[in-house]
Amino acid sequence: MPKFDANGLLTAVAIDHRTGALLMLAHMDAEAIAKTRETGFAHFHSRSRGRLWMKGESSGHVLKIIEIRVDCDQDALELRVEPAGPACHTLAPTCFYRRIDDEGLLQRVID
User: Fold this and answer.
1) Are 98 and 31 in contact (CB under 8 A)?
2) Contact status, residue 50 vs residue 43, Cβ threshold 8 Å
3) 3 state DSSP class of 38
């Protein structure tokens, strides 16, 4: 089983199983992992809300689980997913849609 941190969490990244694109990063606790495995859709622990949430519960932009991988230290998960719409709450296809430019400013690189 995964090794959780002192807060009972571990890092999880969602990867589009078809393209390999990094879609988002979130945190999971034991409850989120169990619910993800039970339903086949990505669930996370929201640190800001302090509760379990299913990605897309209000937008419909769910992440269907294809495979769950565990890293070598067992403290992070890679969720291979099939996204139903944009992964980011900003409606960008990925949460990683900006880069830091040479002046240290954020520049949008993905529409």
Assistant:
1) no
2) no
3) helix
**Residue type for position 7:** N
Q: Where are the beta strands (DSSP E) in 6-105?
A: 10-16, 22-28, 43-46, 51-54, 63-70, 76-83, 98-100
Confidence of residue 111 (pLDDT cuts 50, 70, 90): confident
State both tokens at 97.
Answer: 């849609």
Angle (CA) 106-110-111 rounded to 5° is 110
Q: Is the pLDDT of residue 1 over 80?
A: no
Integer-rounded Cα radius of gyration of the chain: 14
Enumerate residues 6+ apart whose C-beta is below 8 A from 92.
86, 110, 111
pLDDT in tens, 15-66: 999 999 999 999 999 999 999 999 999 999 998 888 999 999 999 999 999 9
